[in-house]
């Protein structure tokens, strides 16, 4: 909402305050002012001139040479390119030395050999927006519609001596979608009076012969039609045009301008029909029939449904109620007789039509939020009297009305104690009463219990809390004390799973991974690489783009996007992890909330670590990723039987992928990205892991218990075993553990050898074994006894022989 | 014999003094103190001495041995030290060469902001609550006093999955979910961080996905002045002791009265600069007293209980704190961006 400060002054005495001061006060009490703009910003030496003569430039078709009286001793010659310039016009002239909002400075010039001493201006050149400038002048210079004093300052008559406040209104303050509403707000803040116009309509005692019938009284509880006969359509006077332009509304003609003026003044949308084009003498308001059409003022044909409300002439729609008039009965230059509509349309049907048809108008935004029922008829009368004043004609007896409108103010009761308890204040009765007075809220006070009759302009106030807010904002939020709750203290903290998530983050950061955060919305195609089937997904109904149309079921693709992004910017060693939600559903068409799980995934490429001048370079490989995953399990205190099972999975290298299984349950995977998939992302060797963190955290964990430090020495035995290529290390170590019994306390792989000196198809794996008896010092013989059993077991079960 | 011993002593001492390395000393030791050395020789002739003289000579011989031995040891130590010095000198390295880099990852700045804010509120007795990102219309809108067709609920802003399911547009649904769990019994003191979604075109200041932190306090006798107090504490802890707060009336469907919270601009200390658009203040969050309808729908009696709620944008906090100018940086995962926050 744009508020002309000059116009606002007509309703409230604020000559002593600058627009900026009012803006600050409004902002601090709840009506935010986004910008304060002086319309004359950057304009100097702009005067009214009269075009004495105007002839074509001999050298240029499109230019005119004008002699313009600007109030100086001699007229000045100005070369003007506007098509609409002509003799006898009063026009705004920027004299030599003048400045315009664009920063342009007017200089003496020669155009095609003719001198030019000044510029006749268009409104756009004076800083107004093209869409608010009257069509007539939008392609050329502005011409004053009335006789003016030559040489006088042109800023005031053009309304450019004004300042505009741009309000950023919250949805509840629809009352401030009007000059009067803002005046009431300013009045409340300053504790001043509001000057409300008192329209004086003198109707002629003549029956118009027009009837009003409303079929949908719930949607339209009041309809008033005023008949005005014999008007003369013309350009509006300058004051009206400038107020409209300052408010961002394009002037059209005197009748339409008046309806817009009153809309801005009262917040009550009105509509003027050309009575002779209305098509009948019967106004019938009803729901549209399914598929019925109307061509609206903007020349578009609209197809309606049974939920939309229309004004008809008894047969066909002539207006889309509360949204926009129809083209057929539009007021045009030759209009003589008017039907002026002032109605109350309920918010729901107007909102429905506005949404369905994608049509928001100054009218619909006001009806949608509920207009003041006590100002509908008054606004109609105000418009009728202004039309008569500006366009002549006679107002016939009326208005002709349908009226079932409830105009009763709401009653809200609240005690002084409740106000103080909610705010933490110690307000006295008198302070609260004064605030109600400033707001012009009538009230009764019985033993500190207030009963307020809320003025109907404030549709947003209906409960105690609303009154508390009104008191608070006028008392000043700054004046509310600062306290801490005097309720019992509570222990705050993280839950165990929140705490463990933090632990994992710390671990991964320490390990050298950067945390990534990516979008939850993705495409099915991207994920198809990693899923066997991708039929069941959670899709958004109206995606903004195909790229963000479905919720992710894996975190890997976006991590790969990130690797790819970094690679394209010359970062080749990047290791990322992400902890976030994925969304799975069993349903083909989702009807219930999907299964939302926290996953922990990583993607790594390039060098794991590097120390260039010492020649150290360790590329990321499967075992780096496995180390990270094992570390995560350790951080989580996972106690179950952990197995990394060689597996094949979509999108991954068939020989370098493991499924992570804990107590036989699949909880994640790790491996190298399949080279063809890596290529899709333009990546080379890339390793990934993905863990179902939710499931991992649900696994049993052990409580930390101290274990006695051994008093007796341990004995270490190292063995190198030759086995077939396909034998896995884990198989051997579990055989060792099995046969090592209780004395064996540790098994670790310390070497892998493949190649020369071994029979083809064989490899050598070396293990280090530690034997310990917590009760006594082990003897060589005791250890040998067990160790022999281990070697025998290895040979029998895995064909492993000691490497000679 | 005593003279002979003295003579040998002086000779040996001179040789030790003249020794220029460990080998020389070894030679002296063998030559004079060895089993075949002259001192031993002298000792062998002790049998011929009288009982009186014998101990004297024996004593002298021991004195000579001790004196020479200790001198040899002293010189050996000097030579060893010199040799070690020499050796260490040869081992010297260029200490100006770069050290081995410790690979360090880092938290995403959004996580850092969330964790810091969580910790401040945990210190004030809050718990951290979480909720689903795909929400029902009821929790995201209706239970927050936004019935269907409410003007403040704009279809165009929400990613709907079905008519009843949507990607949550705010973390506020966790409020109702938490209140329901408390079954009408206070106190409730939670903050809920999480991802939210809006149908916005991504640009420098808008993102279709962003993070919010919602807070809720419900108990008997909670006042608007308490909201000011909690915030003053939070702002000073998070943004610094010098920051002042200011509340401005505003509107949210789920709170009444509602407020925007501003903090004094850190760039200009409230004097007015470009960051704060000359106002001296920066808007950081929205808050208010919980609307009675919201309390009621969460199972709390608004006649008995009152509370306040607040919501803040995590990206905005990070942008303000670190001077980040484009919200898209948070979701690009450029390591040149991420690695700047490893110290946080």
Notes on the structure:
The complex is a heterodimer of chains A (804) and B (344). Chain A has 804 residues and is α+β, with helices and mostly antiparallel strands. The model of chain A has no long low-confidence stretch (mean pLDDT 93). By secondary structure, chain B is α+β, with helices and mostly antiparallel strands. Chain B has two domains: 89 residues; 233 residues, BirA Bifunctional Protein, domain 2, CATH 3.30.930.10. Chain B is 41% helix and 19% strand. Chain B contains twelve helices and nine strands. In chain B, a hairpin with a 2-residue loop joins strand 6 and strand 7. Chain B is rod-shaped and about 130 Å long. The two termini of chain B are 84 Å apart. The relative contact order of chain B is 0.11. The model of chain B has no long low-confidence stretch (mean pLDDT 90). The chains are: A alpha+beta (804), B alpha+beta (344). Chains A and B meet through helix 7, helix 10, helix 12, helix 13 and strand 26 of A and helix 5, strand 1, strand 2, strand 4 and strand 5 of B.
């Amino acid at each position: 909402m744009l508020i002309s400060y000059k116009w606002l002054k007509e309703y409230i005495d604020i000559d002593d305050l600058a627009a900026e001061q009012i803006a600050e006060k409004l902002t601090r009490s709840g009506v935010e002012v986004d910008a304060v703009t002086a319309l004359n910003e950057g304009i100097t030496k702009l005067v009214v001139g009269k075009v004495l003569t105007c002839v074509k430039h001999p050298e240029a078709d499109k230019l005119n040479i004008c002699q313009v009286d600007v109030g100086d001793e001699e007229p000045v010659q100005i070369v003007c390119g506007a098509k609409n310039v002509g003799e006898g016009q009063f026009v705004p002239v920027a004299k030599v030395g003048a400045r315009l909002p664009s920063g342009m400075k007017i200089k003496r010039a020669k155009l095609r050999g003719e001198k030019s001493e000044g510029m006749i201006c268009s409104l756009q050149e004076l800083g107004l927006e093209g869409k608010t400038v009257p069509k007539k002048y939008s392609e050329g210079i502005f011409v004053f519609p009335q006789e003016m004093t030559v040489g006088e300052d042109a800023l005031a008559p053009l309304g450019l001596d004004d300042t505009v406040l741009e309000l950023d209104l919250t949805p509840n303050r629809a009352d401030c979608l009007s000059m009067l509403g803002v005046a009431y707000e300013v009045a409340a803040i300053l504790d001043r009076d509001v000057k409300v116009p008192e329209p004086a309509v003198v109707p002629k005692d003549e029956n118009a012969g027009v009837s009003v019938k409303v079929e949908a009284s719930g949607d339209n509880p009041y309809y008033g039609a005023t008949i005005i006969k014999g008007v003369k359509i013309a350009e509006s006077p300058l004051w009206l045009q400038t107020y409209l332009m300052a408010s961002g509304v394009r002037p059209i003609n005197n009748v339409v301008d008046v309806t817009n003026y009153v809309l801005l003044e009262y917040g009550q949308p009105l509509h003027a029909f050309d009575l002779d084009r209305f098509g009948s003498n019967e106004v019938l308001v009803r729901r549209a029939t399914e598929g019925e059409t109307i061509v609206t003022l903007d020349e578009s044909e609209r197809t309606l449904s049974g939920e939309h409300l229309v004004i008809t002439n008894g047969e066909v729609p002539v207006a889309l109620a509360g949204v926009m008039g129809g083209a057929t009965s539009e007021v045009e230059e030759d209009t003589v007789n008017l039907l002026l509509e002032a109605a109350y349309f309920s918010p729901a049907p107007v909102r429905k039509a506005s949404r369905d048809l994608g049509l928001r108008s100054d009218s619909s935004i006001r009806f949608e939020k509920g207009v003041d029922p006590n100002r509908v008829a008054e606004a109609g009368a105000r418009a009728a009297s202004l039309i008569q004043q500006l366009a002549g004609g006679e107002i016939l007896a009326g208005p002709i009305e349908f009226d079932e409108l409830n105009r009763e103010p709401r009653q809200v009761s609240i005690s002084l104690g409740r106000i103080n308890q909610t705010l933490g204040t110690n307000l006295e009765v008198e302070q609260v009463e004064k605030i109600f007075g400033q707001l012009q809220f009538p009230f009764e006070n019985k033993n500190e219990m207030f009963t307020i009759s809320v003025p109907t302009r404030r549709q947003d106030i209906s409960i105690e809390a609303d009154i508390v807010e009104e008191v608070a904002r006028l008392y000043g939020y700054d004046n509310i004390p600062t306290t801490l709750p005097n309720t019992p203290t509570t222990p705050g903290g993280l839950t165990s799973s929140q705490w463990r998530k933090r632990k994992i983050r710390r671990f991964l950061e320490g390990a050298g991974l950067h945390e990534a955060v990516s979008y939850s919305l993705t495409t099915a195609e991207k994920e198809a690489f990693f899923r066997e089937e991708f039929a069941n997904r959670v899709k958004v109904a109206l995606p903004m783009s195909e790229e963000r149309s479905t919720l992710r079921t894996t975190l890997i693709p976006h991590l790969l996007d990130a690797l790819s992004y970094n690679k394209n910017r010359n970062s080749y060693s990047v290791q990322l992890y992400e902890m976030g939600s994925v969304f799975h559903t069993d349903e083909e068409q989702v009807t219930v909330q999907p299964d939302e799980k926290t996953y922990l995934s990583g993607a790594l490429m390039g060098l794991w670590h590097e120390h260039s001048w010492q020649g150290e370079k360790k590329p990321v490989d499967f075992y780096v990723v496995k180390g990270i995953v094992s570390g995560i399990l350790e951080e989580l205190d996972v106690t179950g039987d952990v197995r990394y099972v060689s597996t094949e999975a979509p999108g991954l290298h068939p020989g370098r992928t493991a499924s992570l299984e804990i107590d036989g349950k699949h909880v994640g995977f790790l491996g190298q990205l399949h080279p063809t998939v890596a290529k899709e992302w333009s990546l080379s060797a890339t390793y990934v892991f993905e863990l179902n963190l939710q499931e991992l955290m649900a696994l049993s964990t052990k409580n930390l218990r101290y274990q006695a430090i051994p008093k007796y020495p341990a004995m270490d035995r190292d063995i190198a075993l030759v086995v077939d290529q396909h034998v896995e290390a884990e198989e051997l170590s579990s055989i060792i553990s099995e046969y090592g019994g209780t004395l064996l306390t540790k098994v670790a792989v310390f070497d892998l050898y493949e190649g020369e000196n071994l029979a083809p198809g064989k490899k050598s794996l070396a293990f280090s074994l530690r034997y310990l008896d917590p009760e006594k010092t082990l003897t060589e013989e005791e250890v040998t006894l067990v160790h022999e059993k281990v070697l025998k077991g290895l040979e029998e079960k895995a064909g492993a022989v000691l490497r000679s | 014999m005593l003279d002979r011993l003295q003579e040998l002593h002086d000779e040996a001492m001179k040789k030790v003094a003249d020794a220029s390395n460990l080998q020389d000393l070894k030679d002296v030791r063998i030559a004079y103190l060895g089993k075949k050395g002259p001192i031993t020789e002298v000792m062998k002739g002790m049998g011929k001495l009288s009982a009186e003289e014998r101990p004297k000579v024996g004593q002298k011989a021991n004195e000579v041995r001790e004196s020479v031995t200790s001198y040899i040891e002293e010189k050996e130590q000097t030579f060893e030290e010199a040799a070690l010095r020499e050796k260490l000198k040869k081992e010297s390295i260029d200490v100006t060469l770069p050290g081995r880099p410790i690979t360090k990852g880092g938290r995403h700045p959004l996580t850092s902001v969330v964790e810091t804010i969580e910790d401040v509120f945990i210190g004030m007795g809050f718990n951290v609550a979480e909720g689903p990102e795909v929400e029902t219309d009821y929790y995201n809108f209706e239970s927050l006093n936004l019935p269907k067709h409410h003007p403040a609920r704009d279809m165009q802003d929400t990613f709907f999955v079905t008519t009843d399911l949507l990607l949550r547009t705010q973390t506020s649904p966790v409020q109702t979910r938490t209140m329901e769990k408390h079954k009408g019994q206070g106190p409730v003191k939670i903050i809920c961080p999480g991802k939210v979604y809006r149908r916005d075109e991504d640009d420098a200041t808008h993102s279709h996905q962003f993070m919010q932190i919602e807070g809720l306090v419900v108990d008997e006798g909670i006042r608007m002045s308490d909201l000011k107090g909690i915030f003053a504490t939070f702002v000073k802890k998070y943004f610094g002791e010098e920051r002042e707060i200011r509340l401005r009336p505003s509107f949210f469907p789920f709170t009444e009265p509602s407020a925007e919270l501003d903090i004094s601009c850190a760039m200009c200390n409230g004097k007015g600069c470009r960051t704060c658009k000359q106002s001296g203040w920066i808007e950081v969050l929205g808050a208010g007293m919980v609307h009675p309808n919201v309390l009621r729908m969460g199972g709390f009696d608004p006649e008995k209980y009152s509370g306040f709620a607040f919501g803040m944008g995590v990206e905005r906090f990070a942008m303000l704190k670190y001077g980040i100018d484009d919200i898209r940086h948070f979701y690009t995962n450029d390591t040149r961006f991420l690695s700047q926050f490893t110290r946080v």
